[in-house]
Design goal:
One of its GO terms (molecular function) is metal ion binding. The chain is an alpha+beta fold. The protein has five domains: 176 residues, no CATH class; 88 residues; 117 residues, no CATH class; 120 residues, 3-Layer(bba) Sandwich (Glucose Oxidase, domain 1), CATH 3.50.30.10; 334 residues, D-amino Acid Aminotransferase, Chain A, domain 1. The protein is 45% helix and 14% strand. It contains 35 helices and 26 strands. The strands form six sheets. The chain has an eight-stranded mixed sheet with strand order 5-12-11-7-8-9-10-6. It has a six-stranded antiparallel sheet with strand order 21-20-19-18-24-25. A five-stranded antiparallel sheet has the order 13-14-17-15-16. β22 and β23 form a beta hairpin. α10 runs antiparallel to α11, α15 runs antiparallel to α16 and α29 packs antiparallel against α31. The N terminus is likely disordered.
Length: 964
């Protein structure tokens, strides 16, 4: 919903862009062009003039440099699409290259271009890499040094963009080094794709690189020397040389010389030199790697104390070199006891912080769960499970950082260059995440054996990375979506595996996601509500399951989180019985409509409605917010309510192009659908008919004529209640139907919310659009899945003034994690609309005794609500947590107040949790919505799911000296 809104808002900016299909054609043409994206060689003088190749820039004007100019279409792409192909750094304005306002997309595109060149034989420079004089390496390196010296003068850049800056050092020329790790993977990928018999070797090099790979490739080259072409042999020899360079012994002399090159900053310089001397004397990887991790963290924590940007650059270069050493040595660290494995996991997690994959505050929140206490000799199964959860969190946060930093550029590029898809995976594999993920997987396998809590997901490796989110079971075709989920049309009888859940997911049989978004997004709430099995998995798991795409499978997730996925042909008799009745009982409910007061058709002051009016005058959003206004007057804004009666009054008007009213058209549609069912028409044909008719109705309502008396009253109420003339007060328009926020069905996010609407024209059109939204395909399909009378939907509208919150999110008042009454789960993102649309939100577990960071935010952008209306997109960094300690206290107190006050003031017998939408502006808490938090009790109590849940002795103790 929010994503659609943003797309519409920025549509005007994108309307003049060159189509992606044309960019794809351009790329193919550039590959064949001897000059690629370049035009001609020219002299570029310091005074801004450009001269012919034989007319150098004279010293009298400051001299200049010589390189290629860009083809006109390349310049046009940059201007219209912000796509920068074949960027020559020496030609580039440094301030425009480092462009934080646009999420540094230009720098990231340069990195992505280098990657594409490495995996696709030069990519757009396939022929142009031999265009003499097009790019001068010495000028590129000089530019790189100057760029970093300028960039690193700013302490905020280092604090906010530490990961990105370190990564860019691998790609931007500045010291003559190359990215050996990327070259190694690229060369092995090229060879395997060209000569499939090398595929096993490629998988080994990508997954578990070691010094033994050198002999492996040499043996391969010897074995297949008569089958390989000359070009393939050349690639193999280049790979061998790269492997030898990558696995060369540590050159401590070189590292110490680099330290000595630092000018000033004596204390840190001496400390670093001493650390290298200590490390030089160590032999065992288990001793060397902790030393490297400490240095990496020391550099990150103290680099801002170093005042010289030259020294800062030296330190960051050393940090990158030490990380490469750590990656090589980590494959040689092979613990043989549980304690050794836990120590390795802690050390590699520490290195994650030192390399920027997790932030300093995130590490502070997590390290206590990973550092073994002194003199401890054993751990219980429960303690070991908690350790695994924390360790798995580091792996997920690491991957989340890479995706958050680069997803904006990769997602743009894959629209015209599919090879860009591999860039994020390449960055993850070239980081400490690779070795850490292996170690965490090993711990997961060990714990599974000791506790019998095992996943049974086909026969893939690394199953300990899979964890259940919502219990349930399903049977259907497996669909593995490796690309953009927003472009996929889902069906309700299929099981989907996504990299990231789509923001507007229609009903499905089951889902698995690499990036779960957050526990309380609308997608997650709907899944919990309907008992849709839902689990998280790793990118490697997704890739491994791709070969089962299109197969019919059985999928189950238990309440304890273990997961089963197998071919339907392997189902046992009990599992077959679960689906013996095709239309098995889904406990559909009928929403009562007999108490709706359609005669009341005046605009209401929200202060005059309360929880008892829900489903009568208006939907639960307005009714409950009106109730909250009475309970927490300082935390709730004023509001207007357009009740059901005004909607029904308008629906009774004649519908253009028909002989009926809008309301009659709706009822005739459902009457005919029932007649079709009774006559034996297939359900999919009935649904197709309904959706077609509802689309006609939806479009008609968007053009409905608003009654003049209603418009006049609305104008008056804006002034008397909201304190300003309509068109002067930016507002939210929230759909609020009688078929949502029920105790049995949430309906979260199914209908339209319009953000920060200002002009009278847009507000009046927005009212029509909100009235129309329950008749969209997605909204109807979700209602149809759970409700017996989905046609009897009555939308009211809640109009509230916009609050430009600093951050916003969702709070579940109890039970979602620990299952206890003081178990509060909160998820927050920066800006407005946080956490509800699947953003990778900062999530905390709050109890009466403290709070735990479950996941940090990895959402790279957010929206703010300017007074001029509309939304403004901002990009964020992750160097500080969103919620502070005061916020945590306020949230805990608010949850306790809601639990006590709401039932008392409404005489409600409801004893479950509440789902609360809220935000903070300058540390003041604002409440925006409250609804019952609905879970599917059938899924949680299913006898079958209970039967496949292992009985675990969580008090069982395991000695740390146990062999693994």
């Amino acid at each position: 919903m929010l994503g659609t809104l943003l797309s519409m808002f920025f549509l005007g900016v994108q309307s003049q862009e060159i189509p992606n299909s044309e960019i794809t054609s351009l790329i193919q043409n550039f590959k064949k062009d001897l000059r690629g994206p370049y035009h001609r060689i020219r002299w570029f003088c310091k005074d801004g003039s450009i001269r012919e190749p034989r007319d150098p820039c004279p010293d009298s004007i400051g001299g200049g440099i010589q390189h290629a100019s860009y083809k006109p279409i390349v310049k046009e792409l940059a201007e219209k699409n912000r796509v920068y192909l074949g960027e020559i750094l020496a030609h580039t304005d440094k301030d425009k290259f480092w462009d934080a306002y646009n999420a540094n997309d230009r720098l990231k595109q340069y990195q992505l271009g280098r990657y594409l060149a490495s995996v696709d034989d030069g990519w757009i420079l396939r022929k142009a890499q031999y265009y003499r004089g097009a790019v001068q390496s010495e000028d590129e390196e000089a530019w790189g040094v100057a760029f970093y010296k300028k960039l690193l003068k700013n302490d905020d850049n280092i604090k906010e963009f530490y990961y990105l800056i370190r990564q860019s050092l691998r790609d931007i020329p500045h010291d003559g080094d190359t990215n050996l790790a990327q070259d190694m993977r690229s060369q092995s990928k090229i060879l395997a794709e060209d000569f499939p018999k090398f595929m096993d070797a490629r998988i080994k090099i990508h997954g578990k690189p070691s010094v033994g790979d050198i002999e492996m490739v040499k043996s391969f080259l010897k074995k297949y020397q008569y089958e390989l072409t000359g070009e393939q042999k050349k690639t193999a020899l280049e790979l061998i040389q790269t492997l030898e360079d990558f696995h060369a012994p540590i050159d401590f002399t070189k590292l110490k010389v680099q330290v000595l090159e630092m000018k000033g900053d004596a204390i840190f310089k001496d400390e670093l030199y001493t650390s290298l001397e200590i490390m030089e004397k160590l032999q065992e990887p288990k001793n060397i790697i902790p030393q490297i991790a400490d240095i990496l963290c020391n550099i990150r924590e103290k680099i801002s104390e170093v005042k010289s940007s030259t020294n800062r650059l030296l330190l960051l270069d050393m940090s990158v070199e030490l990380e490469d050493i750590l990656l090589k040595k980590s494959q040689d660290w092979k613990p043989n006891t549980l304690k050794g494995l836990l120590e390795k996991i802690y050390t590699l997690s520490l290195a994650s912080m030192g390399t920027g994959l997790i932030e300093l505050e995130e590490w502070q929140a997590l390290k206590g769960r990973l550092l073994l206490p002194d003199n401890i000799s054993n751990l219980t199964i429960a303690e070991l499970k908690d350790y695994l959860v924390a360790a798995r969190s580091v792996v997920e946060w690491n991957a989340g950082m890479v995706k958050a930093v680069y997803a904006n550029v990769v997602n743009d590029y894959i629209k015209f260059e599919p090879l860009a898809y591999g860039f994020i995976d390449d960055r993850i594999r070239s980081s400490v995440s690779l070795a850490l993920g292996e170690s965490v997987s090993e711990l997961g396998n060990f714990l599974a054996q000791e506790s019998s809590l095992t996943n049974k997901v086909m026969n893939i490796n690394g199953q300990s990375a899979i964890r259940g989110l919502n219990p349930g079971y399903a049977k259907g075709e497996l669909v593995v979506v490796e690309g953009n989920p927003e472009e996929v049309t889902v069906q309700n009888d299929k099981i989907y595996i996504f990299q990231k859940p789509p923001s507007d997911l229609k009903p499905v049989a089951g889902i698995m996601t690499v990036s779960e978004g957050n526990l309380v997004s609308h997608v997650q709430l709907l899944a919990r509500n309907l008992g849709i099995p839902n689990a998280a998995l790793s990118s490697d798991n997704l890739n491994a399951l791709a070969k089962y795409n299109g197969k019919e499978v059985f999928y189950a997730v238990t309440a304890s989180g273990n997961v089963v996925l197998k071919l339907s042909t392997a189902m046992n008799s009990e599992e077959h019985r679960l689906f013996a009745n095709k239309q098995r009982n889904t406990n559909k409910i009928t929403v009562p409509t007999d108490k709706i007061k359609i005669a009341l058709n005046e605009v209401l002051d929200m202060r005059n409605v309360s929880a008892s009016d829900s489903g009568k005058l208006c939907g639960p959003k307005a009714a409950n917010l009106g109730q909250l206004k009475k309970m927490f007057p300082e935390q709730v804004v004023e509001g207007l309510v357009i009740p059901f009666g005004i909607f029904k009054d308008h629906m009774n008007q004649s519908m253009p192009g028909t002989n009926n009213s809008y309301w009659d058209f709706l009822n005739i549609t459902f009457t005919k659908a029932e007649t079709m069912r009774n006559s034996g028409t297939k359900e999919e044909d009935v649904e197709e008919f309904q959706l077609k008719q509802l689309k006609v109705l939806e479009d008609a309502i968007k053009k409905i004529e608003l009654r003049p008396d209603f418009v006049k009253e609305l104008q008056q109420k804006f002034g008397s209640v909201l304190g300003g003339t309509i068109g002067e007060v930016p507002v939210f328009l929230r759909s609020d139907t009688n078929m949502e926020d029920l105790e049995e069905f949430t309906g979260a996010g199914l209908n339209l919310t319009l953000f920060n609407v200002l002009s009278e024209e847009k507000i009046l059109q927005g009212i029509k659009d909100v009235w129309a939204s329950p008749y969209t395909e997605r909204s109807f399909k979700w209602r149809q899945r759970y409700l017996l009378n989905p046609e009897n939907v009555y939308p009211s509208i809640l109009i509230i003034p916009s609050v430009d919150v600093d951050y916003s999110g969702v709070m579940i008042t109890k039970g979602i994690n620990l299952g206890t009454d003081d178990d509060i789960t909160v998820a927050f993102s920066r800006g407005a609309g946080g956490a509800v649309d699947g953003q990778s939100a900062e999530t905390h577990l709050i109890t009466n005794y403290g709070h735990t960071l479950l996941s940090p935010s990895r959402q790279p952008d957010h929206i703010r609500l300017p007074e001029s209306g509309g939304v403004k997109k901002h990009y964020e960094t992750f160097d500080s947590l969103i919620l502070n300690e005061k916020n945590i206290v306020d949230l805990r107190n608010m949850a306790n107040d809601i639990r006590k006050i709401l039932p008392a003031q409404t005489a409600s017998t409801y004893k479950g949790a509440y789902d609360v939408e809220l935000g903070f502006k300058k540390d003041k808490l604002w409440l925006f919505q409250i609804r019952p938090f609905v879970e599917n009790t059938n899924a949680k109590t299913s006898e079958y799911l209970k039967s496949i849940t292992p009985k675990i002795d969580f008090d069982k103790k395991i000695a740390l000296n146990t062999s693994i």
